[in-house]
Amino acid sequence: MPRGDKSAYTDKQKRQAEHIEDSYEQRGVKPDEAERRAWATVNKQSGGGNRSGSGRGQPDTTESARKGGRLGGKASAARSAAERSASAKKAAATRKRNAAKRARASSS
After folding, report:
1. Are 51 and 9 in contact (CB under 8 A)?
2. What is the pTM of this model?
């Protein structure tokens, strides 16, 4: 099997990698680096490809996701109430703006 061949991965693993890659790209990571990190995360979670004949049998681990959740929780807990409130107001304004934009687009 050539390097970079994803044939040993299940459809679910491919979807997971794509979702993780999108998350990295949204945070400003370059696309090729995002892809590398995504597949490294999938490999860490599942132990590699899970197609039959690929030596499957290890249970998946959610350690990476749990670590990310802990780090995110620490970051938000460190912010002051005023910062959280300002962020919530900004998010609400963005949602309102996007909803109005969608309403205009669907009416035309």
Report:
1. yes
2. 0.54
pLDDT tens for 65-107 read 788 778 878 888 889 999 999 999 999 999 999 999 999 988 8
What value, to the nearest 5°, has the Cα angle with vertex 80 and ends 75 and 83? 90
Q: What share of the chain is helix, strand, coil (3-state, %, to 5)?
A: 70, 0, 30
Among 100, 71, 73, which Cα is nearest to 84's? 73
Alpha-carbon span 80 to 103, nearest angstrom: 35
Token pair belonging to 101: 């934009």
Using only C-alpha atoms, the chain has a radius of gyration, in whole angstroms, of 19
